[in-house]
Design brief:
single chain; about 270 residues; alpha+beta
């Protein structure tokens, strides 16, 4: 690309008069329309009347409409007062069509010069290169907005997934327990926690839940009578003696879950 060539977005931002210099600063609003500061125009026209009086008179006389022909804006201006270093001033961002008319109303050399300048800026703004440049700029902005929306959606999705992940394991384990009414062996409960039955029984003993007597694990007194376990006897075919078989109820399974959770021990599904 040659040094004197401009990118499309640079062309869309550059406002030039016929001789290549900016006579009055022209801005672009969010709708890609050219607008002019009323105060800049007031200064260029060298109007002696105070700005607010001058612009309000023009608006009233020629029936300019706010938010159609112009928009009101406020900005801070530095003062020489240490106690009040800033003051707010009102400005009017005029569309080019209004700026041309206001300049023409002055009926003097400055007004005619400003009007011709605005006409040249309009012509330049509406030539094929500038139209393509604005289209390129708008497309870029829309693409950036689209990418930003996608990024925000991805962040929101991850946040929702995190919330679901935090609540789902507990709900899943409770559902698993509550859906079953059958008795369950300690071996299967231990498997929920990724342990063997031997290790799990020892852990329950360490926590003061059960003790071993005659090869059988029994609940300590303070936990018996709540329906946590159910025991039956059966005849051992090898020895002929009766043996005790203890299994846990679903109520007991939930009791173990809450107790172990309080000690920081979670089932595999929640780890």
């Amino acid at each position: 690309m040659k040094r004197n060539e401009m990118l499309p977005e640079e062309m869309a931002d550059k406002q030039m008069s016929g001789n290549g210099f900016e006579l009055i600063r022209i801005q672009t609003n969010e709708n890609e329309e050219q607008v002019v500061s009323g105060r800049d125009l007031h200064n260029f026209l060298e109007v002696r009347t105070r700005y607010n009086d001058w612009i309000n008179k023009r608006i009233k006389e020629y029936e300019f409409i706010e938010n159609i022909d112009f928009v009101l804006v406020t900005q801070k201006k530095v003062t020489n007062n240490p106690k009040n270093p800033y003051t707010e001033i009102t400005d009017h961002l005029m569309k080019i069509s209004m700026a041309k008319e206001v300049a023409m109303i002055e009926n003097n050399e400055k007004g005619r010069k400003a009007r011709l300048y605005f006409i040249k800026c309009e012509e330049a703004w509406n030539n094929e290169d500038m139209i393509l440049a604005r289209a390129f700029k708008i497309q870029n902005r829309k693409m950036l907005e689209y990418v930003k929306r996608i990024e925000n959606m991805e962040i929101e999705l991850k946040q929702k997934e995190q919330i679901i992940a935090e609540y789902e394991p507990k709900a899943s384990y409770y559902d698993l327990v509550l859906q079953s009414k059958a008795l369950i062996s300690i071996t299967l409960i231990a498997k929920d926690y990724g342990m063997s039955a031997v290790t799990f029984n020892r852990k329950l003993h360490e926590l003061g839940i059960q003790y071993r007597q005659g090869g059988t694990w029994l609940l300590y007194q303070k936990y018996s009578g709540f329906g946590y376990t159910k025991s039956t006897t059966f005849a051992d075919e090898k020895t002929g003696f009766s043996k005790l078989s203890t299994k846990w109820t679903q109520k007991g399974r939930l009791f173990l879950y809450e107790t172990l959770k309080g000690k920081g021990i979670l089932p595999v599904i929640e780890q």
